[in-house]
């Protein structure tokens, strides 16, 4: 699913996959997204790649992180699809 040697960096491929899941409503607002470890296992990528993708999702306003609790889908009013 993620092409490690493709023209698009793996973290950006993951951003698109996760953003699509949020936009489709697979993950509900204010509910947690899968943990870093779950995403590492699902996609077979490095934890740093997952962290970088989640950081981009945070910058886009699609998710927010609560220290010691996890990363959650942002309420739809806060999401911006730049």
UniProtKB/TrEMBL annotation:
GO terms, molecular function: DNA binding; DNA-binding transcription factor activity
InterPro entries assigned: Bact_HTH_transcr_reg, Tscrpt_reg_HTH_GntR, WH-like_DNA-bd_sf, WH_DNA-bd_sf
Domain of life: Bacteria
Domain (HTH gntR-type) ranges: 8-76
GO biological process entries: negative regulation of DNA-templated transcription
Keywords: DNA-binding, Transcription, Transcription regulation
Keyword Kinase: no
Protein name: HTH gntR-type domain-containing protein
């Amino acid at each position: 699913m993620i092409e490690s040697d493709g023209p698009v960096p793996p973290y950006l491929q993951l951003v698109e996959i996760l953003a699509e899941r949020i936009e489709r409503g697979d993950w509900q607002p204010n509910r947690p997204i899968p943990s870093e470890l779950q995403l590492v296992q699902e996609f077979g990528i490095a934890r740093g790649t997952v962290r970088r993708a989640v950081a981009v999702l945070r910058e886009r306003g699609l998710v927010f992180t609560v220290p010691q609790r996890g990363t959650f889908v942002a309420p739809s009013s806060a999401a911006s699809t730049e």
